[in-house]
Amino acid sequence: MNTRTRTTVATAAVLVAAATLSSCGGTKSGAEASAASSCVETDGDSIKLGFLNSTSGAMSISEQTVRDSLNLAAAEINASGGILDKEIEVVEEDGASDPAIFAEKIGKLLTSDCVAAVFGGWTSASRKAMLPVVEANNGLLFYPVQYEGLEASENIYYTGATTNQQIIPAMDFLKAKGVKTLFLAGSDYVFPRTANKIIKQYAAELGIEIVGEEYVPLDKDDWSTQVAKIVKAKPDFVFNTINGSSNVGFIKAYYEQGLSPETSPIISVSIAEEEAPSMGKDVTGQFAAWNYFQSVESPTNETFIEAFQEKYPDRPTSDPMEAAYTSLYLYKNMVEKAESFDVDELNDAADGVTFDAPEGEVTINGENHHIAKTALIGRINADNQFDIVWSSEEPIEPDPFLEGYSWWNPDAE
Fold it and tell me: How far apart are the C-alpha atoms of 319 and 127, rounded to whole Å?
């Protein structure tokens, strides 16, 4: 496999990787890491899998539903006979919305709990902190959330959208609506800054003017100063790459300063059905770009919604939790195709593995470990559900490094 990894690694994560290696398979790093002995136990009647999600901190508003959907998938798979006739034994950990804790916990799961694979993470900062740990231990991480792209690892499967499956379609939608000016609002970490770098380059290609760009730290909620700049700029649209509970502060300031969907509507990439009713304001009329909405019409989605709401009454379904649910079934199908839990054998078998997901059939690209996904734009209605107003109609093949886009220059500022 000729996959590539292009990441910026936090120092804390590197230190955790070095420390955890000593607990299973020796103190190996770099090329030697892939030869590390696995401590995964496959001889018994069960197989351990790790679920690593933030159930505390700023990201818990979004990540708890991912954990719940993973538990639903595990229960369904166990009820149907498990994976290779082995019952899934779940080991759960809280990432606490802190990248360093994610790095620490994935090390524990892989080297102390000896799980066969880990499912979880949300922010790109958490993923990048986990990456060196999972690579050093030759483990597997299934990451369920849309992200900024520009990454591919032999030890990670990306079941959320990459840039050409969410952000680029969102820009095409804005262009088709006649948008001339755009304001960028994001949390201050790697995903929003990288996503906005891509947005700015594509906006130039489309003839859309960027009239402002503002960031607030992920754990801060005061957006009053930044929203005042949006009011002054009067953009046709606001492109929102804010994550977690900081969205509540942004939406509060947006409405309190007189903005609305009629003046400067928002298109978001992190507000879904779970978050919309938690914003503290009526967000009817605002937009979001995802690859799944609860409103997708299909028998598979109807079955999924019914099963989720039977287990978790009065809860909506959403894109990240659907991608997490899908990730566990893709892992099951990979294992059964390979007839093995061995990481290298799973990677060899991964290409072309499919699952009839609630969003539609998805297929793993064995070269870059992403999946083909249909892009959707939804508009929030009075029930905090999304009316689908645009679709790519067919699944878009993943292009995490934007190699098919001549306007993209990774070296530009």
Answer: 18
CB 288 within 8 A of CB 271: yes
> Which residue has tokens 């779940």?
90
In what side-by-side order are the strands of the sheet with 141-143? 87-94, 46-53, 118-120, 141-143, 156-158
In the sheet that holds 386-391, the strands lie side by side as 209-216, 181-187, 237-241, 266-268, 287-290, 376-380, 386-391
- Percent of the chain that is helix, strand, coil (3-state, to 5): 40, 20, 45
Per DSSP, 157 falls in state E
Range list of H helices, 274-399: 299-311, 319-338, 343-349
Residues in a beta bridge with 53? 94
Please tell me the total number of residues recorded for the chain in this structure. Answer: 413
What's the CA gap between 94 and 113, in Å, rounded? 14
**Within 10 A of 202 (CB to CB), how many other CB atoms are there?**
21
Whether residue 157 contacts residue 327, with contact meaning beta carbons closer than 8 Å, is answered with: yes
Q: Name the pairing type of β-strands 181-187 and 87-94.
A: unpaired
> Do the Cβ atoms of 221 and 248 come closer than 8 Å?
yes
Alpha helices in 34-147 (DSSP H): 60-79, 99-111, 124-136
Phi and psi at 61, nearest 5°, equal: -55, -30
CATH number at residue 62: 3.40.50.2300
Main-chain phi, psi angles of 119, to 5 degrees: -125, 120
Radius of gyration of the CA atoms of the chain, in A: 21
In this structure, the answer to whether residues 133 and 234 fall within a common structural domain is: no
Compute the distance between CA of residue 387 and CA of residue 379 in angstroms, rounded to an integer.
Answer: 5
Segment-wise mean pLDDT, segments of 10 residues, the chain, 413 residues: 38 40 34 60 97 96 95 98 98 98 98 98 96 98 97 98 98 98 97 97 98 95 97 98 95 98 97 94 98 98 98 96 98 98 98 97 97 97 98 96 97 87
Distance (Å, whole) CA 162 – CA 149: 5
Identify the domain containing residue 124 by its residue range: 11-160+301-363
For tokens 């800054």, the residue is: 193
C-alpha pair distances (Å), 295 with each of 199, 218, 262: 27, 29, 24
- Looking at the structure, tell me whether residues 69 and 193 fall in a common domain: no
- The alpha-helical segments, DSSP class H, found in 257-395 are 299-311, 319-338, 343-349
Number of domains in the chain: 2
Residue 282 within any structural domain of the chain: yes
